[in-house]
Amino acid sequence: MNTSHFFAHLSRLKLINRWPLMRNVRIENVSEHSLQVAFVAHALAIIKNRKFNGQVNPDRIALMAMYHDASEVLTGDMPTPTKYYNPQITVEYKKIEKIAQNKLIDMLPDEFRDDFRPLIDDDFYTEDEKHLVKQADALCAYLKTIEELSAGNNEFKLAEQRLKKTLSERDSAEMDYFMQVFVPSFSLSLDEITLDK
Questions:
Q1: Coil, helix or strand for 69?
Q2: 153-169 residues labelled b (16+ CB within 10 A) or e (exposed)
Q3: In sequence order, what are the residues at sequence separation of 6 or more whose Cβ sits closer than 8 angstroms to the Cβ of residue 10?
Q4: Model's pTM, two decimal places?
Q5: Which domains are present in the chain?
Q6: How many Cα neighbours within 13 Å face the side chain of 51?
Q7: Which single residue of 66, 113, 138, 150 could bond 38 by disulfide (Cβ 3.0 to 4.6 Å)?
Q8: Distance in angstroms (rounded) separating the CA atoms of residues 47 and 63
Q9: CA-to-CA dists, residue 10 to 22, 30, 94, 133, angstroms
């Protein structure tokens, strides 16, 4: 039985900080971001199914979201303005991401690769699944801007505006529902969200 470094690599996601070019009131790492994206993607899938006649698997969506940035353990987190600075950079970075996804999958014992490939390699996502994970990813980035702005960090003003535009481009009924029901609480203090109404 050979040793696999797959999970040792994944455990290092906690060492990769997001928003590396910006001052943060609280540093966020890729591991905690991935968990939050999994929470939100799972919720979006449930909302889509229960309220808007969706036919997606919330458990699979949550797992996909959990692994959506796993390749960053090999590539690091490239800031969005850099990644999308021009089409050529975007195309080249997508190639690098794909190489990193395949390298991660290759770290697994052969008999498990087909189990993890559909979670790590986004080529295996359906359009609905890809859309939900991307919505959740953008929503969580937007929530980070709300938290930073609420803490008085104006460094995140432009990021908030950019993410509002991204969210409007990825708009859906389930995301609108999530934004109306769950997002307002993120600008409140602990006392405000724990007080009985």
A1: coil
A2: beebeebbebbeebbee
A3: 70, 73
A4: 0.92
A5: 6-183 (1.10.3210.10)
A6: 13
A7: 66
A8: 17
A9: 24, 10, 20, 19
